[in-house]
Fold VOC family protein.
Amino acid sequence: MMTDMADITAIPILLSPDIAETVSFARALGFEVETHDNYAILRGYGIELHYTHTTQPEACHETSCYIRGGGIVALHGVLSARLREGPIKGQNVRLSAILSRPWGMSEFYLHDPHGNLLKFGTSTDELPAGLSFPEG
């Protein structure tokens, strides 16, 4: 018997050597945060991300997740504005421009303070008429 699996969602679990710093980063970007011991759940903009504590901070530079959806252009604008409001104190946060990729996606990248890479994308074919981004 086949059951309806339409409500299944994958939620990435990223690593953080400093959960308090991750919480500060997330709140500065406008996410709501719930914490449990050495674990944080970030929710906002239709996204949910989980972070768990690690004692190996170098591992963060080897992890990433991909977040796909039609609202990434608007999300990029919101995140850019929040980062312009002021630096996230002591945090090495990087936000790229939106670029059209050869594989048919328009994407931007956000590096969290620990080096995790959050990739955001939407199909270039699904962009509003007349909207395009430089190739990269």
